[in-house]
């Protein structure tokens, strides 16, 4: 099976991800391919020295983006490399792991017969983590086989047009009031749709993943992707299943982001510059003073960040505020973060 890792300018997290794969995935030969969109070359060269078994593919905008990231600056033109991901998936194995660079495995996983099992059960999607939020694995359990739980998603509706109309179709305030009086689905009712969709942190059937990105318009639009998922399920009717692992196999990081776009403070003077921050962490990792594999059961610890920032102009307190805001975005709808 192939493992595809989406990567952008965080080689310290990418190193952690690869180390966890080598430590925890058992009894199978896997092909690890990094899909990189702008990590400076010297960091990727260092990663290849540490992990010679990996392959690295580059997006069409790699050169331009990496030049900006090398200087700790946000790229002038920002685009999401969806076409790059899609083309690489087309070349992947029928079932493949898709990870972000800030995902890492925390438990052993025997994948010797996983692909054959998913084929035999006509499985579209195997979810590997859900941040402790039961609404993200709200399902009707069917059976467990070889460490995989197969389920029927508990969705408000499996009709694509109903999903679109109820959750996104009524922008008029008058209609919103009517829907509220009728006790129509709210945000919590929408969460179970993530039992059939994820941007990463899962094993996908190749054709299913490709269908999710139909008409993507170069943006990550969760509404469209869930709509596309429902269209695919409707077409296949009862020939498909979904699955998750009995417990969460992955964790995701809250130390940093790939962009400046989210979780900033309210005033311009308080904005935390993620590109400057990542450059500092990248250099500390590259120079061997930032040990990202100290404890793979937890995220990189604040004490390590404080140590790295102590010799820089970046405020540890501002980073803490940014990180807490980042975590709050997820805990606000039921996720649990260590």
TrEMBL record:
Domain of life from the UniProt record: Bacteria
Protein name, UniProt field: Glycosyltransferase
Protein species of origin: Aquimarina rubra
């Amino acid at each position: 099976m192939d493992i595809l890792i989406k990567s952008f300018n965080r080689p310290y997290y990418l190193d952690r991800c690869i180390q966890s794969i080598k430590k925890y995935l058992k009894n199978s030969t896997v092909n690890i391919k990094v899909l990189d969109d702008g990590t400076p070359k010297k960091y990727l060269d260092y990663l290849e020295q540490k992990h010679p078994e990996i392959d690295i593919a580059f997006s069409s905008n790699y050169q331009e983006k990496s030049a900006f990231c090398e200087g700790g600056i946000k790229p002038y033109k920002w685009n999401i490399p969806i076409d790059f991901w899609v083309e690489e998936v087309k070349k992947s194995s029928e079932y493949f792991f898709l990870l972000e660079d800030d995902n890492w495995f925390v438990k052993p996983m025997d994948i010797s017969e996983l692909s054959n099992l998913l084929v035999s059960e006509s499985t579209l999607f195997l979810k590997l983590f859900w941040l402790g939020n039961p609404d993200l694995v709200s399902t009707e359990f069917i059976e467990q086989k070889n460490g995989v739980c197969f389920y029927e998603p508990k969705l408000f509706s499996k009709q694509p047009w109903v999903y679109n109309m109820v959750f996104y179709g009524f922008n008029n305030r008058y209609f919103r009031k009517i829907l509220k009086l009728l006790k129509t689905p709210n945000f919590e009712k929408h969460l179970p749709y993530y039992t059939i969709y994820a941007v990463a942190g899962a094993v996908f059937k190749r054709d299913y993943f490709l269908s999710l990105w139909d008409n993507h318009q170069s943006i990550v639009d969760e509404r469209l992707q869930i709509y596309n998922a429902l269209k695919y399920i409707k077409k296949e009717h009862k020939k498909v299943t979904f699955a998750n692992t009995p417990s969460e196999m992955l964790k995701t990081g809250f130390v940093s982001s790939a962009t400046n776009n989210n979780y900033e403070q309210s005033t311009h003077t308080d904005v935390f510059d993620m590109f400057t921050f990542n450059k500092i962490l990248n250099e500390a990792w590259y120079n061997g003073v930032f040990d990202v594999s100290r404890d793979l059961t937890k995220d990189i610890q604040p004490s390590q960040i404080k140590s790295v920032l102590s010799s820089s102009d970046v405020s540890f307190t501002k980073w803490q505020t940014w990180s807490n805001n980042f975590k709050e975005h997820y805990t606000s709808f039921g996720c649990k973060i260590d």
